[in-house]
Amino acid sequence: MSTDGVPARPPVRVLVVDDDPIVRSALSLMLGGQADLEVVGEAGDGREGVLLVDRLRPDIVLMDIRMPVLDGLEATRRLHRLPDPPRVIVLTTFDADEHVVEALAAGADGFLLKDTPPARIVEALRKVADGEPMLSPSVTRTLIDRLRALHAEPADDRAVRAQRRLAFLTDREREVALAVGRGMSNAEIARELHLSVPTVKAHVSRLFEKLAVTNRVQIAMCVHDAGLV
């Protein structure tokens, strides 16, 4: 029980999957110092990681991409097909656009670079545990550029189309969309706009419907195309 009378949430269970034992040890040591996070296991390749997920039932898997036996992308695909899959954050040295797109298509909930500051990795775990996807700023930029390339059209046409889509939003929804476009989390948006986090989540859900998108990256892409960020 917490000090305010609300039942304390059990620690988020984390499995670290990376073929470099030094990286695994560093991540486990860093995360082990957080009261709300618990490292329940380590694996040196994707196959071992999938087996440990079945045995340990972690909430989140920190997954490297390039590993022997089974790489992180295929391991993520296999985990995503489970009846009750854990959330997956891909943590890698490489931010090539094909890795970003493949990881998200495989079912990853986040994509971070290994040079991400420790505090940001901890923040990412907490956000993903709460149901928020987490992409590093450089990865978001890469993904937006890749999606634009896949749906190439003149920049002026993209801007006009994006502005028309945003025109159907209320003033508050537009504020939330702009904040999402700046890469802000729900909690950060709530603080800036003086709203509750559930209210922000409700606005984001309505943005999905009104903009006909399925994730926050696509909201950000629309805002960027409109020239507002």
TrEMBL record:
Residues 162-227 form the HTH luxR-type domain. Residues 13-129 form the Response regulatory domain. The modification 4-aspartylphosphate is found at residue 64. This is Response regulator transcription factor. Gene3D superfamilies: 3.40.50.2300. It comes from the Bacteria. Transmembrane segments: none annotated. InterPro entries: CheY-like_superfamily, NreC/VraR/RcsB-like_REC, Sig_transdc_resp-reg_C-effctor, Sig_transdc_resp-reg_receiver, Tscrpt_reg_LuxR_C, WalR-like. Keywords: DNA-binding, Phosphoprotein, Transcription, Transcription regulation. Pfam families: GerE, Response_reg.
